[in-house]
Amino acid sequence: MAILQAFQSLIDTVQGGLILALPADGQIVSANQLAAILLATPHGDLIGQSFSHFLPNPADHELLARELRHSSMIYNRALTLQANGGRHFEVQLSLREVELDGTRLLVYSFSDRTETKVMSQLLDFERSLVERSISLMKNLREEDKPADDDKLTGVAGMHRLLSAAHAETGRARRYGGAVSGLILSLMNMPERVPELDEGSVHRHLLRLAGSLCLQSTRDSDLVAKREDDAFIILLPSTGMSGANELARRLIKALRQLTFVYQGEERTAAACVGLSALRGSESTPKPMLDRLDEALHKAREGGPNFIVKQP
């Protein structure tokens, strides 16, 4: 057909394989280059063959014809084709009957689903790798964080503080210099009474106190919290006078904080104990023990008391 020869350049621009065949016997009268490639058949050899030759299941030929009789078009039907050489591949096939220059023709268009499936599998695999990488990075970041850091306040836990205290003690013994410590306890914390309060005020005050300690200290200092909610601050290269000055600033700042508990406005308050590493001490334990003694006496003195145990 001369008109098909004229349309060949247009047919070759169609995405996917395109075949024109006679309805009576399925004889192929025209095809684009991609159809020849997908069916592994030279373009010249493809013309004249029956489309059913490329259907591995002979029943599919009659099935397609029956479906086309019941509807004007078959669209994106899953089908298996067989390339010249025996390779089977899955396609999405569309089919309709048209009239061209007075001749009735079947128009088959199809795309290889195998490549699409492979690309989809590759994308799924890539997505899985990305998700696993993100999860791994999160886990690594979590592992980098000390396990005993306090989740409520963001300050260090006691394990970290003890490790740092031993390191600072060793450095002070080797190179000289002072090391001191401060322990702070909130004095008027609301009692946790389950039937009256879930502890939200208690937690809020601890967060404020932890934030205040972090903001008031240097990068070289270390703030930690014990299970009894007391905050300990390790102060490298700092003597008792420097620790005392920090204690005064913390108490002054806490006294400016107010909170409402059961309808009553209250002012935050704390007491502080201080101590420092002595020249004869090779471990931080004696200093930490003196901090506990100083805190005990400060609690006896009441809010805003500072007790020193050099």
Question: How would you sum up this structure in a few lines?
Answer:
It contains nine helices and twelve strands.
What does this protein structure show overall?
This protein has 310 residues and is α+β, with helices and mostly antiparallel strands. Helix content is 43%, strand content 25%. It has 9 helices and 12 strands. The protein has helices at 2-11, 33-38, 43-46, 59-70, 113-144, 158-175, 200-216, 240-255, 285-301; strands at residues 17-21, 28-31, 73-82, 88-100, 103-112, 179-186, 222-225, 231-236, 258-261, 264-267, 270-276, 306-309. The strands form 3 sheets. It has a 5-stranded antiparallel β-sheet. A 5-stranded mixed β-sheet has the order 7-8-6-11-12, with helices on both faces. The protein has a two-stranded antiparallel sheet with strand order 9-10. α7 packs across α8. The longest helix has 32 residues, at 113-144. The mean pLDDT is 87.
Order of helices and strands: HEEHHHEEEHHEHEEHEEEHE
Using the alpha-carbon principal axes, give the shape. rod-shaped
Radius of gyration: 41 Å
Largest sheet: 5 strands, antiparallel
Number of strands: 12
The percent range for helix content is 40-55%
Helix/sheet category = alpha+beta
Low-confidence sequence ranges: none
Report the portion of residues in β strands.
25-35%
Strand arrangement within the widest β-sheet reads 2-1-5-4-3
Mean pLDDT: 87
Number of H/I helices: 9
- The separation of the N and C termini measures 109 Å
